[in-house]
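stage 2 :: seqdesign
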């Protein structure tokens, strides 16, 4: 599982087992210790995977009775079928203007809250990857709330729900976030600095620059994935069609 967030890897394996019928709807997942042994991870990673899956409506965790698998037909209910690029384009439009609106009248208390979210995003061994991911979300939602516009806040919340719940979108974001945590930290700091200066134009630009760089990273990752898939297919074809010429 090197190079991937452990709890995401565990969650994906559990999802696969749900899809192939190993854990059908209505069944209960094995306990934390058993899953930890099965996937060769810590119980903390299993617990974070369960939180991750419960937040997406895949399982329901009840104290004392374990995790129950929910009806897969209800996964991602209500979420439109959009690509990671379409979602990011929409986020750019709304979150950039939300930042500009927020800069006009953001309070010192909200700025302090954003600073706390930013510290959690950095990790530094004090917070889990799941906590850092939630801090990223809360950073953006706090800015949307600070815009003072209920409609903008609602749209941003819906976009983030898609970001967190859509499996294809999440996979693209996760693959990018593994590679650019340093850049994201710097960009969020620049957004916070612009908001602290109460500068609407600078806040808008900082937010747009964050998403511009994010889209560039997404393009790089998806291009590399496509090339790797093409290389694998070429290797399979070479082995299939050239083997017959071997003596």
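stage 2 :: out
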């Amino acid at each position: 599982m090197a190079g991937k967030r452990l709890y995401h890897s565990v969650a994906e394996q559990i999802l696969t087992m749900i899809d192939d019928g190993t854990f059908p709807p209505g069944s209960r997942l094995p306990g934390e210790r058993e899953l930890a042994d099965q996937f060769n991870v810590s119980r903390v990673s299993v617990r974070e995977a369960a939180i991750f899956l419960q937040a997406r409506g895949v399982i329901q965790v009840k104290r004392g009775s374990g995790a129950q698998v929910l009806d897969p037909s209800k996964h991602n209910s209500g979420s439109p079928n959009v690509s990671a690029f379409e979602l990011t384009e929409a986020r750019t439009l709304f979150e950039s203007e939300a930042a500009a609106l927020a800069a006009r009248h953001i309070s010192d208390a909200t700025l302090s809250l954003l600073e706390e979210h930013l510290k959690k995003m950095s990790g530094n061994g004090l917070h889990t990857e799941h906590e850092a991911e939630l801090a990223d979300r809360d950073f953006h939602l706090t800015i949307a709330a600070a815009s003072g516009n209920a409609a903008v806040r609602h749209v941003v919340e819906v976009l983030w729900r898609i970001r967190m719940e859509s499996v294809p979108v999440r996979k693209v974001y996760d693959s990018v976030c593994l590679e650019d945590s340093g850049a994201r930290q710097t960009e969020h700091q620049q957004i916070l600095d612009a908001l602290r200066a109460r500068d609407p134009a600078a806040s808008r630009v900082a937010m747009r620059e964050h998403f511009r760089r994010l889209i560039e990273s997404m393009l790089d990752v998806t291009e590399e994935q496509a090339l790797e898939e093409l290389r694998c297919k070429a290797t399979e074809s070479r082995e299939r069609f050239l083997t017959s010429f071997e003596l």
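stage 3 :: structure notes
- The radius of gyration is 21 Å.
- The mean pLDDT is 84.
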